[in-house]
Every structure is written in structure tokens, then in C-alpha cells.
Amino acid sequence: MRKLLVIAAVVALAGVAAGCGEKSSVTVYKQGQYQGKADKQPWDNDQFKGDKTAWEKAVKARNLGQNEYVRISGG
Amino acid sequence: MARMKFLCDAERCIECNGCVTACKQEHEVPWGVNRRRVVTLNDGVPGEKSISVACMHCSDAPCMAVCPVDCFYKTTEGVVLHDKDLCIGCGYCFYACPFGAPQFPQDGAFGLRGKMDKCTFCAGGPETDFSAAEFRKYGRNRLAEGKLPACAEMCSTKALLGGDADVIADIYRNRVLKRGKGAEVWGWGTAYGKPERQPAAQPGAKS
């Protein structure tokens, strides 16, 4: 009986001690700064292979394609 | 490359909801979440006007200012994006946004408010380009494919323009000159009337 009590006390103490050793799970935020994952540039991928000019050219063509005055009358 | 903007021509929008459908289809947006929607003013009254509304990717975005966990960032092209892994779904951005852009999926049996979802200008998010994770969280990354937002590109009347601000403003100016009316651009003053918020300096970041 006494042995059981001692074991129970040791387990309880170990539990209390483990609680004290818990690490803080609170995230510390830096005010006003993006805290998430970093993102890449839209041309840094397999398609454009870092060629910013090629990407800009592709997007510009799409931009101008929205002007139906040019598309219909041919300029 | 100048900054990316949306422009909706109320004289041309016919309320077909094609932009809404294109967005839903392109990004497989779940039920209850509308990244883009069409709003009609004076519905049923002769002379009613419709406008397509989504995140306008504001110059000085109020959502970025109010976010308590700073999960928003701005790309070098001026697109306002956010990291869903960081978002706590508090809804502050919804209250701050003048366009009602932030959406909150209702997941689970008790209608828990999920992480914020909004228009990404078809630019994905802070995950590897074209990855499954990026598509699941943010939708397709058309910008990295050298394309513009699906909503604008498929607009049948070209009421919705999206892309490089200089180019779309030129297209619109030319259009107004030709038709001689309808020079008012809804939402531009609210979205782009303030000085540009500078992208946060983060090494390797898109912003």
C-alpha cells in the first residue's frame, strides 16, 4: 500500500514538473510586418524560368487583347 | 510592369454573371464563397446599372492595415494576397473592406467560420507555383502562366477589364471618347485614390 502511494506521488510530481516545463505556444508577431511564408515572383517558375521580360511580354499581349476596338478593326 | 487593377465599365455590364461563373470554375470555389459577384443598382428601374465586384487589390488596402496577425502581403505587381496558414478567420478584414471582398467558408456541422478567402487576381498564394497546395488554398495561378484573371479575360462585353493599370485605363479612355459618355469608374477612387502601400521588405518574398 505504502509502495503504491509512493509511486502515485512520484507520478503526480512528474506530471506537475512536466507542466512547468511546457514551452510557450504563443506566437510573437512583429507589428505591421507580413508574418507568413515568402512568395516567389510570377516569372520564377518552370514556364518562364526566371525570364521577367518574357513574362511581361506575355501579360502585355493579354492586356492589349482586352481592347476589342483593336481586335475588331485591326487597329 | 505597373500595378495590376480591375476596372468595371457600368455602361457595358449586362449582368450575365459570366465573370462569377468563370471565377467559380477556374478556382473550384466552394458553395457559399463568392470571390466575385455582380451588383445591380436600381434593379428593375429603367437605366439600371450593374457592376462586377471583387477584391480591388487597393493601393492602401484596409484589410492589410487591420489584420491582427499580419497575414496579408502585396506583390510587386500590386496584388494583395494572404497566407491562409496564418489567417485566424477573425473577420476584421471583412469589416474593413469597402467592397465586401473577404469571404468566410462555413465548414463543419456547426457552421464554423473558416479562414478568409478572396480574389487573388488569379495570382495564387504563398505556396509553390502550380502546386496542389496552392490550388487547394488559393486557386489557379494564371498570372504565373502569363495570363490575366479569368473573369476579365472571358467577359463577353469587355465590361470588366483587369491588368496593367496603364493599359486598361488607356482602353477605357479610348472607349469613353468613342461613345462620349460613361466616364465614371465605379470604385476606383475608393480602391486606388490613396498613395500606394509599399510592399513589405522580406527577403525572397513576392512583395
What's a quick, concise take on this entry?
The complex is a heterodimer of chains A (75) and B (207). Chain A is an all-alpha fold and 75 residues long.
Primary descriptors:
heterodimer, A: about 80 residues, mainly alpha, 3 helices, about 50% helix, B: about 210 residues, alpha+beta, two-stranded antiparallel ribbon, two-stranded antiparallel sheet, 8 strands, about 15% strand, globular
Give a structural overview.
The complex is a heterodimer of chains A (75) and B (207). Chain A has 75 residues and is mainly alpha-helical. In chain A, 51% of the residues lie in helices and 0% in strands. Chain A contains three helices and no strands. The termini of chain A are far apart. Chain B is an alpha+beta fold. In chain B, strand 6 and strand 7 (112-113) form a beta hairpin. The two termini of chain B are 14 Å apart. The model of chain B has no long low-confidence stretch (mean pLDDT 91). The interface between A and B is large, with 35 and 49 residues.
Question: What share of residues are in beta strands of chain A?
Answer: under 5%
Query: CA-to-CA gap between the ends of chain B?
Result: 14 Å
The chain-level mean pLDDT of chain A equals 84
Q: Helix and strand succession of chain B?
A: EHEEHEEHEEHHEHH
Distance between the termini of chain A: 98 Å
Judged by helices, strands and strand pairing, the structural class of chain A is: mainly alpha
The tally of beta strands of chain A, per DSSP, is 0
Oligomer: heterodimer
As a percent range, the share of strand residues of chain B is 5-15%
* Contiguous helical run count of chain B: 7
Poorly predicted parts of chain B? none
Task: Compute the CA-based radius of gyration of chain A.
Answer: 32 Å
| Average of the residue pLDDT scores of chain B | 91
Going by helix content, strand content and strand pairing, the class of chain B is alpha+beta
* Major sheet characteristics of chain B: 2 strands, antiparallel
Spans of chain A of 5+ residues with little confidence (pLDDT < 50)? none
Q: What best-fitting shape of chain A do the alpha-carbon axes yield?
A: rod-shaped
Largest interface: A-B, 35 and 49 residues
